[in-house]
Amino acid sequence: MKKEIYDITILGGGPTGLFAAFYAGMRNAKCKIIDSMPALGGRLTAVYPEKYIYDVAGFPKILARELIDNLIEQIKPYNTDICLNENTLSVEQTEDQIWEIKTNLDTHYTKTIIIAAGVGSYSPKKHQGLGADQFEGKGIEYAVIEKNIYRNKNVIIAGGGDSALDWANELVSIAKSVTLIHRSDKFRAHDDSITKLKKTNARIILNSEISGFYGNENLQEVLIKGLEDHHEEIIKVDAALIMFGFNSSLGKIKEWGLNLVGNGICVNEKMETNLPGIFAAGDIAKYSAKLDLIVTGFSEAAIAVAFAKVYLNPKEKAQPLHSTTVMEIKEKKEKRLNASVKEI
Question: S-S: 188 plus which of 138, 161, 218, 235, CB 3.0-4.6 Å?
């Protein structure tokens, strides 16, 4: 049985990939999403679903998981095919200009590809302190999937970036206590987050690190050590959140013949890569004056879809009709179809 050939296949089911799927539906392109994760949403789902996002247009603030839920709801009318838990291993163009995508589970065929893989595959930077391996998953975590598990608990957060400060601010209202420990006296987070945390009852320990984790079956206490004065202190804790960031890698993408720069793929103003019919959008797409923001990814997704349509049919216009016009046309077609069904 011959496999179906899609107009656009999107590699990556994060916010950029989901919006690309919606826009492909708006442009009447048959679309499929392939993602290595067990659920859609990319890092927003896997790393900080309970974190508020403040820089999405039209939302003063929105939980990451709610944004993903909205994006998933947005693609439902277009019957986008979704393949999860599939790692893309290779992409090769056949003699008839169709792209063959091989994953660990299946082979897919498509006329164009939009790579929206974020920062590629990623893994958290692990803590090297004594006992860190022993208590991973037993009090030590590298991401917050459900914030309510920290309710009424003594929590220590290690790190000085946005994630550490954001979660300290988020948990301080529900945890029994929150302690933030950072190796430096300067944070790498937004000034607003720093100011906000300093107004809470969270304890902030600077120029220090966790040197050991202790307990029985689960984590019960940590040993902290000053990096300058070498002062040591034992703190009773129920949970430790280690937020040192992530190591990212393009993985198999490096083997596909794409022009790369750093940990990204070179694209032009049309989001085209050097390979015909392959586009990139979101954090993985690199060009001059690039901003790695969710809203930037949304824009790039629309551009990639528009020029994928032109690639599919050179007579097609990249500039689409206004969304209100598109929806009005769709509604009229549906009314005519329903009327003809009634007549039958």
Answer: 161
| H or E element, residue 177 | strand 177-181
Q: Can you tell me the mean pLDDT for 180-206?
A: 94
Give the total residue count for the chain.
344
Instruction: Provide the domain limits for residue 267.
Output: 5-122+247-337
Q: What is the reported pTM?
A: 0.72
Which letter does DSSP use for residue 292 in this model? -
Element (H, E) at 20: helix 15-26
Asked if pLDDT for residue 203 goes beyond 90, the answer is yes
User: At 103, is the secondary structure helix, strand, or coil?
Assistant: strand
How does residue 83 score in pLDDT terms, banded at 50, 70 and 90? very high
Given a cut of 90, whether residue 1 has pLDDT beyond it is: no
**Adjacency order of strands within the sheet including 177-181:** 140-141, 239-242, 154-158, 177-181, 203-205
Instruction: Tell whether 217 and 267 lie within a shared domain.
Output: no
Kindly calculate the radius of gyration of the chain based on its CA atoms and give it in whole angstroms: 24
Same domain assignment for residues 268 and 328: yes
For residues 255 and 251, give the distance between their C-alpha atoms in angstroms, rounded to a whole number: 8
Report the domain count for the chain.
2
